Amino acid sequence: MRIVVIVFLVMIIFSLGSALLFLLRDRGNGSTRVARALAVRVGLSIALFVMLMAGFASGLIDGRL
Question: Would the pTM count as exceeding 0.85?
Answer without folding.
Answer: no
